[in-house]
Amino acid sequence: MYRFLPLIASLAMLALFSVMVPVSSFFWIGVILMGGLSGIGLYDVFQTRHTLWRNFPIVARIRWIAEELRPFFRSYIVESDTEGRPFNHEERAMVYRRAKDVSSVEPFGSQLDIDSPPYEWLSHSIAARHPKSGDPRVKVGAPGTAKPYEASVLNISAMSFGSLGSHAVEALNRGAAKGGFYHDTGEGGVSKYHRAGGGDLVWELGSGYFGCRAKDGSFDPARFSDVAASDQVKMIEIKLSQGAKPGHGGVLPGNKVTTEIAEARGIPIGETCYSPAAHTAFSTPKQMMDFIAQLRELSGGKPVGIKLCVGNRWEVLALCKAMRQTGIMPDFVVVDGAEGGTGAAPAEFMDHIGAPLRQGLVLVRNALVGCDLKQHVRIAASGKQISAFSMAASMALGADWINTARGFMFSLGCIQSLNCHNNSCPTGIATTDAGRQRGLVIPDKAERVYNFHRNTIRALMEVVGAAGCEHPGELTPRHIMHRVTQDVAQPAHRAYNLLEPGVLISGADDTHLAREWAMAQADSFAPLQID
């Protein structure tokens, strides 16, 4: 009967209070406390959903309290500065300090295990420089693109209105406008909050074609042209997949389709909306190139790119074959790593589907360089990129610029509470709850977004200067050393087996991608059967 002692004790105390004469206010506090505990205990005994509650009334609820508090205790008390996931305390603190425009220097040396793989470092130069430019730009525009865009080397990655609240979206856009970098809309369409600050936008088109969606869910060219005509929309990004849940479609329940969501996405209010796992506007690599050309024409010549998390290697090579055969190519490719974030995804997708950023970036770089296309097609890297070194390493391996979502969320005040999926974000960022959003003051957070970008670019240029370069685009794989074992470290071009320009065209059989190159075909995403 020890399991029921808390319930028995609370009932006994309640019975005792009932025969006592009230002598002070503490008496009524005791009555309320024992009455509440007794009620909870009796409910636990007779309810049928929770075994532990039935077997251990009252006391079993401590487990649920512990479950709720566990992330906070782990993050703030148990973990060391470098242990946390997805982002550790040291990484988050760096963003907070840069967003608040205070010093982000650290004392007493590195806390990283620099003797174990996969530790990496940048090879600095004896002839280090102090780069003159504090705002390096990248020109985006393949041959035939009438309106090329000068992009910052750090931009806000895709986050839809709905996954983020209106205050967060508006603060991000106002910060982007002040800092001169772009704000990716996410696949939820161009909302009025994305437009509120006047910042540059990259309009992301997912398989749901939100913002240019016909009644049957297909692509509507006329609606696309209307939205793309906005001067604020600088580029178009076709989302093929995203890192945290590649190959996963989506369902937006009708009860979440509010008036504002419906307006941004171009869907009926209150109706359940489905996003298929794959696009319906094309089904082959060549058709994708034709779709890119169509969007470029409909937008008046704005750059059009694709975003993907790398899966089958032959499919990436098939895209390159289609580019060469059609003469049509995207202006840019955003490589999203499997370590990227999302508001909600199945654990299997987050943990085990899709290539991590480094492997995906290397493959896309090898494919474009090996096909002699890299001089026309820019590469962006997205997925857990918040420090100057992570940016420099990705750019040395082929990326032209970096996108980050969670980095800018931290700049807004995100505390990594992991409540993005249940609309109860305590900081008012990943929620549509008006009461919680009230705590996010737009002008203040917009300034922090601007500060984070400015201070991170400043740190990047210090790293670039240490390598003896003036612009991040001058970084090469040889600037990055990769520890393969505790005793062996190699420059990145060897560690990652990087290809030379044009080698897939002139001699693919001598490369490590020979088999996948032979399997790839421009007319289908399916692989050719190779003996």
Automatic annotation (TrEMBL):
<dbReference type="InterPro" id="IPR002932">
    <property type="entry name" value="Glu_synthdom"/>
</dbReference>
<dbReference type="Pfam" id="PF01645">
    <property type="entry name" value="Glu_synthase"/>
</dbReference>
<dbReference type="InterPro" id="IPR013785">
    <property type="entry name" value="Aldolase_TIM"/>
</dbReference>
<dbReference type="InterPro" id="IPR024188">
    <property type="entry name" value="GltB"/>
</dbReference>
<comment type="similarity">
    <text>Belongs to the glutamate synthase family.</text>
</comment>
<protein>
    <submittedName>
        <fullName>FMN-binding glutamate synthase family protein</fullName>
    </submittedName>
</protein>
<dbReference type="InterPro" id="IPR027283">
    <property type="entry name" value="YerD"/>
</dbReference>
<feature type="domain" description="Glutamate synthase">
    <location>
        <begin position="154"/>
        <end position="469"/>
    </location>
</feature>
